[in-house]
Amino acid sequence: MSYVDEVLERVRTKNASEPEFLQAVDEVLNSLRPVIEANEEKFKKEALLERLCEPERQFKFRVPWVDDNGQVQVNTGYRVQFNSAIGPYKGGLRLHPSVNIGIIKFLGFEQIFKNSLTGLPIGGGKGGSDFDPKGKSDREVMAFCQSFMTELCKYIGADTDVPAGDIGTGAREIGYMFGQYKRIRGVYEGVLTGKGLSYGGSLARTEATGYGLLYFTDEMLKSNGKSLEGKICAVSGAGNVAIYAIQKAQQLGAKPVTCSDSTGWIYDSEGIDVDLLKEVKEVKRARLSEYAAKRPSAEYHEKKAGEHGVWTVKCDVALPCATQNELDLDDAKALVANGCFAVAEGANMPTTLEATKYLQENGILFAPGKASNAGGVATSALEMSQNSERLSWTFEEVDGKLKDIMVNIFRSADSAAKKYGCDGDYVAGANIAGFEKVVDAMLAQGVC
Ligand code: NDP
To answer: Could you tell me if 151 and 212 lie in one domain?
Structure first.
């Protein structure tokens, strides 16, 4: 049995109840086979893969808070500090009822390679809670965030672990958490990113993941003799990533015609109206049916089990920007049948393993999230730099650096794929390029 298979078997046995984590490890280790097989003896002696798949440490804690009726509620908080070989742990905090340790571990594991790919000195981590901010009052969200940070603040710091936003954690939640950290620890430092502009946030951080996704996609298309100009895009999600992906796609000449949320999806033949979408989702925090009510060219479809939503729409480019495993094999088949030629992931692991394989086998240009959505964490690292030097850069400065980083990520993934004989396979290329730097640092630092 090969070293990769041995480790995969051990990871499966040890983490049997964590399907998302197993899916992420499976994808990464399988795509790393050419590199690992070329160094099998050395890596095995160093137990390198076993160390890579075991978080350095993980915290699980009680988060009690009082709701508006005076009732005490209890949620579970998590922080997984996965790998600090190349820098302080960095990764978002997800607030969603589906959160459990397996989801946080999958996200933290992916984050190691993504952060390495940015070329910036940041390690991998992730955290969150099964708390659902939806439908809660601002006071309830504040009560939760303060209780969450009361415990989390013991484990994080500007030079050790710097969390950020993710699903359910936007500017409001980061603000409440930052206030509580400062109050308890008594230090004003860049311990969180995604902060408001008045207290250390970076211009262009809000836009970064969506914009970065489109910079990457643009570069991938150009390198394959294609362009975004005039192309129809199917986008899922209606949150931070989706909104700014739609905006940048329009700026680059494409026409996004769909978006979705957890209750339904929109097809807008005239192209999505970003200002209206922002008003509905960012300001009112309402459902997408409100978008359709104000826009005659839009159709609203209620989400139904077994239906394939935005992926049934005829498009050239698909941009999944909602959540994990939202694009399955049937969706992939529908996209190929409808003439789609590129899929670029804005969300983390939105495409199932079978769907990814099908898309790649059918010649679709496929951009894996850990490369194509790395613009968010890259700009978070730029926010850390600005906080350290106590300066704020202009929007253009940050956006220019973001664009350079995304183009470089594409080039690293592309050349790693070519080097190991899998030209055009950006999944393998991204994993290999991210892995090489982390492994180099781990080996240099001895057994730890
Ligand atoms: P948001 O919470 O801002 O938005 C998520 C969107 O997806 C919402 O519109 C939500 O609907 C929708 N959604 C969530 N779950 C489902 C579901 N099961 N079915 C359909 N729609 C769903 O999150 P972000 O935009 O920040 O994150 C989206 C993805 O991108 C996540 O995978 C995240 O990990 C990843 N990501 C985010 C980064 C960032 O900088 N924000 C950086 C890198 C990756 P509703 O409005 O109803 O809640």
So the answer is: no
Are residues 152 and 13 part of one domain?
no
Question: pLDDT tens for residues 243-253?
Answer: 999 999 999 99
Strand duo 298-302 + 317-320: pairing: unpaired
Whether residue 263 is found in the same domain as residue 360: yes
Six-digit token string for 367: 């951009």
Counting Cβ atoms within 10 Å, is residue 200 exposed (0-12), middle (13-18) or buried (19+)?
buried
Total domains present in the chain: 3
Pocket test residue of 205, 262, 285, 291 for ligand 1, highest count of atoms within 8 A of CB: 262
The enclosing domain of 65 has a CATH number of: 3.40.50.10860
Query: What sign does the CA torsion over 340, 348, 327, 272 have?
Result: negative
The answer to the question of residue 74 being in a domain is yes
Residues noted as catalytic:
126
Domain co-membership, 161 together with 237: no
Cα(286) to ligand 1 centroid in Å equals 15
In terms of domains, do 48 and 72 share one? no
**Is pTM, for the whole model, over 0.85?**
yes
Identify which of 98, 141, 166 to mutate to test ligand 1's pocket (most ligand atoms within 8 A of the CB).
166
DSSP of 137-177: -HHHHHHHHHHHHHHHTTT-BTTTEEEE-BTTB-HHHHHHH
Answer whether 309 contacts ligand 1 (Cβ < 6 A): no
Question: Quick check: is 381 in a domain?
Answer: no
Q: Atom 27 (ligand 1): residue with closest C-alpha?
A: 167
**Per residue in 84-135, pLDDT tens?**
999 999 999 999 999 999 999 999 999 999 999 999 999 999 999 999 999 9
Ligand 1 neighbourhood includes 383 CB (under 6 angstroms): no
Kindly state whether residue 431 falls inside one of the protein's structural domains: no
Alpha helices in 389-425 (DSSP H): 395-419
Give the 3-state secondary structure of residue 256.
strand
Is residue 447 assigned to a domain? no
